[in-house]
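Try this one yourself first.
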């Protein structure tokens, strides 16, 4: 089985050469004393060690052992506790957290690289700490100062973990119909009653306390999403001095048996009049929860990337080692009966597809992380507004496309391994099982597509998209190698968007029918922009310092591979998006 090695050189290249993140940090007052290239590199090195030496070794045994439920208590796989302790002692829970409450205040661009490493090493393990960081964002943005001071520092330190409790058995994508009830206790707290299902890390043995962020409705709340409030509900109530008090009236009724991420406890959570505290305003809970969900959506996209990178590393190691058949042009290694798989065009096609999509995916998720950093740290209001708009536009694209590609890449990696990818030994089948959930949770990829086309494009008449397309056009020079191909797809995307907007004014089903294909088409254009930027940065670096020439030349070749073999997928997705709703609604229910 191939060992995971963090792609540090690629990560640094994307951060410093493609996006010049370090130059931005030095210009932002909130960051220029906190982070520079040297500090960031040291953090990345430590992160790589943690991922490879502490987290990755747990991945396979954690999958085999899984979590155990016994009378409401959940035991995580052997080794998880110790790894979580090391994770927490390293300060990784608070890497991007607010320094006023014990976080390290690092930029998201850096945290995104760490997230990728942890996810490559083990998706199941990494879910436990990741939800705490997201919960802190929602608490920080919407809760009272008291709640912030009480709950954020122990989550950043790893002493406590967090969850997000949205889903109920009858309410998944449609949260407007949740039934969990909240009653005002009249003393600043609420009593919450209801059952949530599928709650990641709802119960476990890694931390002293678990802080649940729960969506519920007050008795007089309006129907639908506008009647949802958000509550913070601790497993153990917290005394005024911060020590743990009595156990709250909530429990884990069961954990799910499931396809993958066996080391992650997926819990049924029963709240029986549990004491909770309002986060944000009454009936504005969904907005408050979106602060957490948007963070988690970027994280889930990066989960797809992490799995895809692991798949590439394993498939490449296998293709170098495994000998089958002879090279079509000439026998490469005459001292053995067969050549390595890597001599075959089809194997190279699969590896290059994975490589091109992973490197663009890393650049794209880093670009979105950078928009979050600009929105948070830039002193310029106009810059912040634009970055907020771009992050809003692209969050559903990162979530859905990186996870769709994540599954594809894990399956392609499996194909490279042949039958050895299907059996247990090499770990590839686990990767396929584990990554599959990323397309489903945090809002299915279908729901992400609706969010993109309905809310982020239709509702503002394409204004956010206009910002993105302007930036692509402005940064693409006529002399750039792939300029014409890229700008041609940008023009076509713009026309496609205009036609869909006009279709959707006549036909209420148009957005739902076109969403997924539209998101795919947009993503291939974004990846084209990423490859153009990577290729230019590589050429610049080659000309200016001349180091690593073979590695930099590989970037140019991979860019060409992307433009000739992968970008054409834009056209089929765009054609499908334009196909309209006719056939979809032509069949009666009986005809299906
Ligand atoms: C392992 C695991 C971990 C999870 N962790 C959490 C967690 O920590 N917290 C939490 O709250 N939830 C969690 N979930 C729940 C997850 O977020 C939901 O399963 C997901 O949002 C989809 O909801 P659903 O399963 O009810 O599917 P449904 O909402 O029933 O959707 C079924 C299908 O219909 C489609 N669909 C639904 N509505 C529409 C529409 N309007 N237009 C077009 N298509 C539509 C969906 O895209 C999907 O393909 C987890 C789930 C799993 C399996």
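Now uncover the answer:
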């Amino acid at each position: 089985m191939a060992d995971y090695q963090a792609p540090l050189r690629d990560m640094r290249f994307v951060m410093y050469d493609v996006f010049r993140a370090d130059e931005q940090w030095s210009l932002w007052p909130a960051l220029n004393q906190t982070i520079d290239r040297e500090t960031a590199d040291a953090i990345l090195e430590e992160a790589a060690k943690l991922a490879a030496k502490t987290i990755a070794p747990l991945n396979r045994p954690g999958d085999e052992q899984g979590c155990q439920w016994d009378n409401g208590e959940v035991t995580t796989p052997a080794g998880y506790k110790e790894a979580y302790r090391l994770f927490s002692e390293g300060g990784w829970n608070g890497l991007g957290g607010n320094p006023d409450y014990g976080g390290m205040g690092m930029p998201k661009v850096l945290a995104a690289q760490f997230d990728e490493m942890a996810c490559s090493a083990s998706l199941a393990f990494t879910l436990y700490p990741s939800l705490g960081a997201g919960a802190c964002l929602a608490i920080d943005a919407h809760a009272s100062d008291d709640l912030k001071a009480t709950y954020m520092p122990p989550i950043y330190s790893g002493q406590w973990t967090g969850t997000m409790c949205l889903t109920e058995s009858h309410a998944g994508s449609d949260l407007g119909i949740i039934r969990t009830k909240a009653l005002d206790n009249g003393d600043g707290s609420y009593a919450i009653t209801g059952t949530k299902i599928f709650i990641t890390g709802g119960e476990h043995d890694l931390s002293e306390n678990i802080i649940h962020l729960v969506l519920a409705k007050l008795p007089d709340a309006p129907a639908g999403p506008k009647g949802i409030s958000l509550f913070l509900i601790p497993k153990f109530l917290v005394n005024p001095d911060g020590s743990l008090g009595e156990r709250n009236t909530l429990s884990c009724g069961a954990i799910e048996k499931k396809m993958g991420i066996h080391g992650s406890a997926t819990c049924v959570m029963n709240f029986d009049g549990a004491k909770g505290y309002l986060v944000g305003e009454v009936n504005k809970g969904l907005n408050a929860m979106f602060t957490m969900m948007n963070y988690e959506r970027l994280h889930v996209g990066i989960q797809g990337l992490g799995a895809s990178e692991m798949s590439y590393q394993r498939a490449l190691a296998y293709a170098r080692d495994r000998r089958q058949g002879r090279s079509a042009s000439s026998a490469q290694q005459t001292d053995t009966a067969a050549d390595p798989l890597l001599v075959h065009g089809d194997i190279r096609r699969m590896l290059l597809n994975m490589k091109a999509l992973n490197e663009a995916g890393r650049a794209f998720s880093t670009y979105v992380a950078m928009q979050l950093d600009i929105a948070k740290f830039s002193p310029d209001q106009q810059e912040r507004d634009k970055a907020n708009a771009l992050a809003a536009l692209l969050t559903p694209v990162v979530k859905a496309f990186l996870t769709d590609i994540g599954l594809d890449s894990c399956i392609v990696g499996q194909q490279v391994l042949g039958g050895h990818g299907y059996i247990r030994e090499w770990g590839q089948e686990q990767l396929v099982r584990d990554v599959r959930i990323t397309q489903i949770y945090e809002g299915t990829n279908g729901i992400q597509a609706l969010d993109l086309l309905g809310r982020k494009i239709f509702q503002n008449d394409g204004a956010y998209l206009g910002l993105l397309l302007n930036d692509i056009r402005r940064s693409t020079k006529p002399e750039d190698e792939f300029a014409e191909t890229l700008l041609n797809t940008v023009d076509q995307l713009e026309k496609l968007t205009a036609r869909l907007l006009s279709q959707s004014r006549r036909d209420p089903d148009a957005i739902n029918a076109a969403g997924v294909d539209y998101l795919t088409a947009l993503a291939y254009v974004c990846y084209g922009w990423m490859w153009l930027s990577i290729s230019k940065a590589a050429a610049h670096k080659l000309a200016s310092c001349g180091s690593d020439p073979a590695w930099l030349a590989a970037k140019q070749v991979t860019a060409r591979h992307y433009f000739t073999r992968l970008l054409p997928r834009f056209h089929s997705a765009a054609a499908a998006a334009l196909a309209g709703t006719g056939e979809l609604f032509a069949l009666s229910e009986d005809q299906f």
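Discussion: The longest strand covers residues 266-279. The pocket of flavin-adenine dinucleotide is lined by residues 164-167, 172-173, 198-200, 258, 266, 437, 440-444, 446-447, 450, 512 (CB under 6 Å).
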